[in-house]
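Sequence only, no structure available. Ideas?
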Amino acid sequence: MTRLRPCLLSTVAFLLFAGCGAARAQTLEEVLVTTYTSNPQIEADRARQRASDDDVARALGGWRPVATLQVQHGRGHDIYQYKQTKRNINPLYPANPSYSVHEWRTPDNLLLQIQQAIYDGGRTSADLRHSQLAVEAGLATMVSVEQQVLGGAVQAYYDLYRDQEIAELARQNVAWLQEQANAVHARYQVKDVTQTDVAQAEARLAKGLSDQTTAEGTLEVTRSAFQAATGIVPGVLPSPPPAPVALLPTSKDEAMALAETNPDMRAAQLTAQVAEADVDYMASGLMPTLSLQATARRMNDSDQAYLGTTDHQVLLSLSIPLYEGGVSAARTRGAKQTAGQKRLEADYTRRKVTDQVNRAWQQLQSARANIRSLTEQVRAADVARTSIRAEMRVGTRTVLDQLNTEQELMDAKISLLRARHDETVASYGVLISVGHLTASALGLPVEIYDPAIHYEKVRNQWIGTGIDEDYGKDRKPE
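Reply:
I predicted one. Tokens follow.
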């Protein structure tokens, strides 16, 4: 069962609906706010972005000094073998051709070393450029994920409302058909209608019951999809708001111009730039390096009166790679190929985004045209039903005529309901294609997550492994 989560919002505070006993009406705004503030996919992508922020801090570490302290303490045993000669006889062992001397010692050494890179062949600069561009690409990906999640919630909401209304129409239709079947049976008893009329009424009732079963089954599937997309146990949905016309581009040309703000396109372009930085990073392995190294050392390796040695030194170290088996050259060539790949992928992403905008815009226009036609169809079908009911009372219409006109009106209402659903979903599809389906653009009453706060905090952090975020440790399975 979904865990109950309290959400403190800037202008609205409410409890989530998971685990609640009685279902209540859930507005689209409430659903979107809850999705934005608690969706694990959004939270996971924010964690990914925070990890990218720390990669910038790691890259900056290439310019910082590296200090190491090495301490050694132990016990040593040395054995010295001596050979005696006539000129060198140990009076303690005059008869032995050789003798041994044992010496015990206690090594006690201390080494402090500080190294500062002065020039590393452009490696750190390329690494830093890679990390900073990766952060920018990650920001675009964050927008894309937010759009996908909110778009999925919108789709699930309007799907559920559509199927909820279709199921209600099916129930109303069955109730009416049951009344008609009962009335036809009563008329048959007094020989006012024939057996054919009874059979037609019963057949239409059986179809209505089948349609109701199908509609209710579809509704349950949609309810499950709604909970998966939003994390909310679905209740009764009120009539949803109309399409966000004020946020939509006014023409196809404007929509195509706004496509440049599509986050997928932005992320692909930045990823290509990241690959370009990787070329310089790999090529740095072919360049010389220059560093400054300061060392302080104290060595004491004897148990005798000798106190050991202490020395200090500062070295300027220049390293020039002459040949290292072609490893760096191969890595550089591979990075260039990858950079070309990412440029081509960015071009392909641009094509896909252009197609996405075209499709979304055309779907919206088609849905609007369908609504106009279907609205007229519902009006005409309603007029026809009223006329046929009047004609039934004077005996100029058959039972089948009445059953047919009721079915035509119901079919028209369902088609209009679907068309209105399609128009609204297509409207949000246009917003997704131009990068405007975000909590900020929609004006949701919620505190907008600002990734810059974490970036600025960790960018120049020299030490420390702690983080403020719980990175999902307190989340319970839903």
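Residues 1-23 have pLDDT under 50 and may be disordered.
Hope that gets you unstuck.
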